[in-house]
Sequence to fold (250 residues):
Amino acid sequence: MEVHAHTHTARKKWTHYFWEFIMLFLAVFCGFLAENQREHMIEHHRAKVYAANLYEELKKDTTTLNTIINNHITAYGKLDSFCLLSTEKEKRNITNGMLYYYSGFVTMVNFFASNNTTIDQLKGSGNLRLMSNNVSQKISEYDKKNNELENEYQLSRIEFEKMETLYFKIFDGYFYELITGGNGYNVNRDSVFILNPPLVNDDIKLMKEFIGWVKFEAGIYRSQNDTYHIPIKESAIELLALLKKEYHLK
Fold:
């Protein structure tokens, strides 16, 4: 009978297991680094897309704000002139055409609404974290200023509606549209000044009440420019410069 001897497998040294562990660890670690780098690149790309979209919206905002600021300056200047002329109508040769021209700026004030689609997306999706700290802070500041302006508008709209109601009790809106085309900014005022159309109501007490509201609103328009419109424009310009620098936008 044959007897077979058992063969013994040589034992692996502990260093072999150590190097196997090291190799496995490095493979996992490098995979983690690669995945992390890939995720970082994706997030950076998304942040740049957000930045580019926000950049375009802010450019539109600054253009709109320039128009609104200039319109407010024109409006409260014209309303100041209306208050002066309407109180001196009996002393000076003031035509109703002059009053129609200047009072029309009561209804020609614009309200600013930001192109905030991208900001809403960043906030709603939680992706504001993708932006750099400086940029996300500026975005929050800009958004806060716009919210404060909207609150101001909510209050001033009530006063504006009161003044507008008084306006249509005194002045014929149809006639104003007829002589100005609804745009007193571009009309030849001298051609309107020589006209003397009747007022809907020439009650002195009603006119005094209207003048009081016009003075009050002219002050509000000044305040809105100084407190809200101009600071928001400056904030938008700062954010534009920061986006351009950090995300290399053109």
